[in-house]
Amino acid sequence: MSGRTARVAGAFRERTGRDPDGVWAAPGRVNLIGEHTDYNDGFVLPAAIDRLVRVAAGRRRDGRLRLWSLQTEPPADLAVAEVGPGRVEGWAAYPAGVAWALGRAGVEVAGADLVVDGDVPAGSGLSSSAALECATATALADLHGAELDRPTLAALARRAENEVVGVPSGVMDQMVSMLGRAGHALFLDTRSLETEQVPLPLEEASLRLVVLDTRAGHRLVDGAYADRRAACEAAAATLGVPALRDATLEQVEGAAGALGDPGLRRARHVVTENARVLAAVELLRAGDLDRLGPLLAASHASLRDDYEVSSDELDTAVEAAVAAGAVGARMTGAGFGGSAIALVPTGLVGPVADRVADAFAAAGFAAPEVTAVIPADGAHRLA
Ligand code: GLA
């Protein structure tokens, strides 16, 4: 048992006085490109990363869920039957929501003790929520002998987030936390849920995937994410298409008057971003990682100017990384704070980190955290 696995198992024993029945884990993610496209039936290209939420779990038969986190207070003790939309407060809504969603899928959760230990920083845009949901979903499904495939587990993890936590997120984060594969990015069509594991041979290309965490936390439960989603639905209705996935740039620009501002810009972001994902997948299939830079730059500019979900910190991080020699950089995840990613030549990781730190200091921002991450496997059992 590795150090972190033993630690969460030990924490479980301390709190419950017994051994866990197992330890499960699910990763956070970065999104290489395809931002704010997943709730428009569009394309995304995320990668699971080597930052995990681990869950030590033990069965109960009394219908109670007892939940502890080594990172977040307070613990929770609730009846599975009490869980539902709007009925659980705080971090416990994520794991409890998963138990509820399993119940809706026909797996009656008989109760469980769960101890959670994560190293996906919360609020940094790296999907600590999806990692927690997916680790819990695999743990509870295994404990109850439920043979659900990974897309099904991802769908019910998302349902927990949408309905019990109350964040209207798309399905990207849960899909990649379930289906990620080491050394690969996951090309996902969020309409058909078709996936393709696309090799991401960073080492062969002498590149590192670097996370620039602005430490300016974001909170998706705030209204801005839901506002963007509503704007996209309104734009699709104006254009007479089922989702913005179905619109062309010509259609969007031709309807400028009807879409108005910011409707036109919101729709233009989604349509151009979908095209950038397809172009990025082509480059990766050809092994041309070096040529991703312009697509990352265009994605960031579109998120900043048309979609308006970047922040001064994210813009500063992206500019500084590119100025220090990154092949490309862009904000990742929902935005409004959180993290950017950069593709950095191996020898330049230090200089990029320094340049970003200097730019933050000069701008009077809190110090950023710059770390390389590795594309990793999706949810799995550790012990
Ligand atoms: C969050 C959501 C995802 C996706 C991204 C933006 O991470 O959970 O579903 O919408 O924002 O691309």
In brief:
By secondary structure, the chain is an alpha+beta fold. The chain has 11 helices and 12 strands.
Q: Order of helices and strands, N to C? A: HEEEEHEHHHEEEHHHHHEEHEE
DSSP helix fraction: 40-55%
> Which regions have little confidence, pLDDT < 50, spanning 5+ residues?
none
State the end-to-end CA separation: 7 Å
Main beta sheet strand tally, sense and closure: 8 strands, mixed
Mean pLDDT: 96
Please, how many helices? 11
**What bound compounds does this protein have?**
alpha-D-galactopyranose
* Shape category: globular
The overall strand count is 12
Q: What fraction of the residues are assigned to beta strands by DSSP?
A: 15-25%
Radius of gyration: 21 Å
Structural class: alpha+beta
Keywords summarizing the entry:
383 residues; 8-stranded mixed β-sheet; 4-stranded antiparallel β-sheet; 11 helices; 22% strand; binds alpha-D-galactopyranose
Description of the structure:
- With 383 residues, the chain is of the alpha+beta class.
- It is built from eleven helices and twelve strands.
- It is globular.
Topology:
Elements: H1 3-16, E1 22-33, E2 43-59, E3 64-69, E4 76-79, H2 93-104, E5 112-118, H3 128-143, H4 150-165, H5 172-179, E6 184-189, E7 195-199, E8 207-213, H6 223-239, H7 249-254, H8 256-285, H9 293-305, H10 312-323, E9 328-332, E10 339-345, H11 349-363, E11 369-373, E12 380-381
Parallel strand pairs: 3-5
Antiparallel strand pairs: 1-2, 1-12, 2-5, 2-6, 3-4, 6-7, 8-10, 8-11, 9-10
Helix pairs in contact: 2-3, 2-4, 3-4, 3-5, 4-5, 6-8, 8-9, 10-11
This protein binds alpha-D-galactopyranose.
